[in-house]
Design brief:
With 169 residues, the chain is α/β, with parallel strands linked by helices. It contains two helices and 13 strands. A five-stranded mixed beta sheet has the order 4-7-10-12-13, with no helix packed on it. Strand 12 (159-161) and strand 13 form a beta hairpin. Helix 1 (28-44) packs antiparallel against helix 2 (50-68). Bound molecules: coenzyme A (COA). Residues 1-2, 86, 105, 127-128, 143, 145-147, 159, 161-162, 168 line the site of coenzyme A (COA).
């Protein structure tokens, strides 16, 4: 899969350089993530000016959500180092959990279903158009093929493809 830097990518330690961008650099997905990080940071520290900065982050989040066409809730639990190379159509359920250094290609859905929402371990790569539905768990370093519909757990390091998703290795 392109954009992958295995085997050096950690499943535990967030690589924040994957989300960094220069000031005024046009990088909508990283700007969207920055607004989420900013909101959650200012929510956590209760300084007097935090409320204002939180509201500013909400406005930035709305703007970049419109630009990217991604639906990523501002309260989402996302580990550091998330890559969204083409953020359009990425939809994430508010209860989903994403581990560090994951990668979501365009049109990915982490959706609610039986029992809740998905949990992605660290360094999980999800191919374009894949749908991961319900309270499934994807192990660290696992991969999901383009357009797969994942309805069952994926073991650590495994690859899941097809509809419904099946493990190929
Ligand atoms: C799933 C994926 C990571 C597997 O890559 P791989 O480990 O190199 O696997 P291979 O290409 O050797 O394929 C292994 C088998 O899985 C099948 N397969 C691979 N990807 C598949 C997919 N998305 N859907 C269904 N079957 C798939 C292959 O046909 C092959 O089947 P076979 O053994 O019966 O011949 C890759 O195919 C993929 O889907 N990557 C997504 C990339 C993406 O979304 N890029 C977007 C860029 S904008």
């Amino acid at each position: 899969m392109t954009h992958r830097l295995e085997p050096t990518v950690s499943a535990l330690v967030p690589d924040w350089s994957r989300e960094s961008k220069r000031c005024f650099e046009w990088h909508p997905s990283r700007s969207l993530l920055a607004s989420i990080r900013s909101y959650q940071r200012h929510r956590a520290n209760g300084y007097p000016h935090s409320g204002l900065l939180r509201r500013l982050a909400v406005l930035r989040h709305r703007f970049w959500s419109a630009v990217t066409g991604a639906d990523i809730p501002i309260n989402c639990r996302i580990g550091g180092g998330l890559l969204l190379p083409h953020p359009n159509g990425v939809v994430i359920h508010p209860d989903a959990v994403i581990g560090p250094n994951c990668l979501l290609f365009q049109q990915t859905t982490l959706g609610g279903g039986p029992g809740g929402a998905p949990t992605l371990g660290g360094h999980v790569d999800v191919g374009a158009g894949a749908k991961i539905l319900g309270a499934v768990r994807l192990g660290a370093h696992s991969k999901v093929g383009a357009n797969a519909v994942v309805l069952q757990d994926v073991p650590e390091g495994a690859t899941c493809v097809g509809i419904p998703g099946r493990i190929i290795g």
